[in-house]
Amino acid sequence: MEKLFKLQENGTTVRTEILAGITTFMTMAYILAVNPTVLGATGMDHAGVFVATALASCVGTLLMCICANYPFALAPGMGLNAYFAYSVVIGMGYTWQTALAAVLVEGIIFILLTLTSVREAIFNAIPQTLKYAVSCGIGLFIAFIGLQDAKIIINNDATLVSLTKTEWGGMSVPATLAIIGVIITAILLVKNVKGGILWGILITWALGIVCQLTGIYQVDVANGVYSLLPDFSQGFQLSSIKNVAFKVSFHDVNILQFIGVMFAFLFVDMFDTIGTLVGVSTKAGMLDKDGKLPHVKGALLADAIATTVGALFGTSTTTTYVESATGVSEGGRTGLTSLTVAILFLLSLFLSPIFLAIPSFATAPALIIVGFYMMGSVVNIDFSNFTESIPAYITIIAMPFAYSISDGIFMGIISYVILNVISGKENRKKISVLMYILAIIFLCKYLFV
Prior knowledge:
Elements: H1 2-5, H2 14-28, H3 31-40, H4 46-68, E1 74-76, H5 80-91, H6 96-115, H7 118-125, H8 128-149, E2 153-156, E3 160-163, H9 173-190, H10 196-213, H11 255-284, H12 296-313, E4 318-320, H13 324-329, H14 335-347, H15 352-356, H16 360-375, H17 386-401, H18 405-421, H19 425-428, H20 433-448
Antiparallel strand pairs: 1-4, 2-3
């Protein structure tokens, strides 16, 4: 262990690393329940997505261990899966097979950018304000999706959306349970309970099972109300991955629109990964005296390969998880932590009937709370500087209101360039050549595509 992970050099022990890995897994295992629900909205097989999610998380986290010896864990990213399902497939009308193709191309480009050290240069060209705004906007978008999944927010012809109400004027049982789940999850986080989000899902699900057994929750398959009890009659359904794996397709692709989708995946993944690496590394004291992360290329390469492999398995973009900070807080400093997480994701394959029985109203609190986490970066936006804050504001509100992460990114970049160009010579100096190019491309998209 010492030879492989340099434990003494990093001031840690085998026991500390394993406990840190368990903690990290507990805080991010909710993705095993949430991802099949989110991607399932596209028509993808839930069981197949579950297996793909577990395998992609296992492989990606194992690569982080091998390539960088860092305690970071990877899994299909929240926000990126929402963009995949609700913007690309449902919003733009692409098939999920074509959306997987966009993720695959993005992953290959990421590998090339990482090997040539271009990835950091592209990231540095995007203003920091917009990076904060993207995180906030995705947070709102995810929370909105969670509210919809739980049927707390429903469609309304008069006001577009409204709070749900049953025929007797109150909220439905699933919506009520989801609200209780948000409160429970929030209490667990306030109390610093390890794995609070995962426990919130499990407790909400357990309350639903009690309601089903007592007749409060009525199963109605015809109307999409399914049983909450795990069905082990069909086994572990590991073979279901064949329904989603190696299904990428470039059939009937609009090249310009496809490039826009691919770049949206690229930018969001870029912000998410490098931001997480810097944030968690800072917390762990891993940055050098120049504020740089040693072996960062290995970490970025692991992320890029994981995205490519994940697309082939049949899931949306695989990325480094900010929940890795929980394991770091427990003392995790080496790849032994990530190895532990990878093993736990592999073992989760044999619990598929349990995870697949978890309903959307139980995973909705996780979406809402993760949205809260992602909103935290709003405090870093300088609202006294209008050339910075207005584009950030446009980015944030465009994502939930346009129901599109990519539109938020595009509008943010366009508005940032325009406002700074007309604000004087000093502000124009802030804009890189790449930002001008991106703004022109995205503007042409709205005008001509």
